[in-house]
Amino acid sequence: MTAVSHEVDLLIVGAGPTGLFAAYYAGFRGMSVAVVDALPEPGGQVTAMYPEKMIFDVAGFPEVRGRDLVAALVKQAGQYDPAYLLGRPATELSDVDGGLLVEVGDGAVRAGAVLVTAGIGEFTPRPLPAGGDWVGRGVVHFIPELAVHSGHDVVVVGGGDSAFDWALALHPVARSVTLVHRRTRFRAHPGLVSKVEDLGVPLITPAEVVEMRGDETGLHEVEIELGGEQRRVLPAQTVVAALGFTADLGPIEKWGLDLEKRAILVDSTMRTSRPRVYAAGDVAAYPGKVKLIATGFGEAATAVNNIAVALNPDAHLFPGHSSNMS
Ligand SMILES: Cc1cc2nc3c(=O)[nH]c(=O)nc-3n(C[C@H](O)[C@H](O)[C@H](O)COP(=O)(O)OP(=O)(O)OC[C@H]3O[C@@H](n4cnc5c(N)ncnc54)[C@H](O)[C@@H]3O)c2cc1C
Fold it and tell me: What pTM, to 2 d.p., does this model score?
């Protein structure tokens, strides 16, 4: 059996908005917490797919940029110092005397309860066929920090919203941005396409990246094939492969939880069919479910307060008002 690296009251599986808010709430309820995520950064779908987009339907914020919301959630949870186990997928779940054991990458976490906030599952970026060896050495799927690409010639590959979002976000920091798409039509919202066009970003279609060249210092240029086998070379230190993601609940589907359409069935306390395992956020299913950040926050609070009672039957379900705590 894998060595236990952490022992906590609550293990949260998924560091998206729901898991991060649950980490705050569990700390507020006096629990020790670990948060595991397969991705190297917290923030779930927000960080992976739309960190630069404005969000308009989070309570209390008329508008908030995705990355700022995630930073605020991390700060809020940080008051109680949860242990983050990032870049590690949660794989196996087993019962151990009076608790649960979850394998996370090369270690294992023993917890009194598990809250699954795994969203739509683990994301796997759709690969850029010519990008193989260059992933992490010039080819990226996520951009956690725009400044890293400052002064670069950037080629964005893709025709959906995220390709155009990245073109917009990178334009102020990059030396040049060019968008390459294999079709002449874009899936992205026409308003977004116009914004990028207005900035003068060249949109090259139909075209595919067929070769990448560089040396040990990194990527220098890409060769694209235009219709009719015509080729062109573009300078590029960064290629953003914005070809979308596949998402998969993967190992969690084998945890013996009742599922419905790749989501976990819960009752009104957010409890699953397995004792001490709860679910909240996009991954949780019940009649009338609406998958939004706002609903995930409410479900996180419901789950954690019910977990507090499950772990300690003398605890109150109602946590008291945070405004009364100094
Ligand atoms: C382009 C786009 C725009 C959106 N705009 C809005 C909006 O304006 N307003 C709004 O309310 N919602 C919006 N949403 C939806 C919103 O992002 C989701 O509802 C929200 O992210 C759900 O949060 P979550 O924490 O439940 O799950 P997620 O954000 O999906 O996070 C789940 C996390 O769990 C991790 N994970 C999964 N499986 C494992 C495992 N086995 N081990 C370890 N980690 C695992 C994943 O890596 C991920 O980080 C948008 C979504 C998209 C794609």
Answer: 0.89
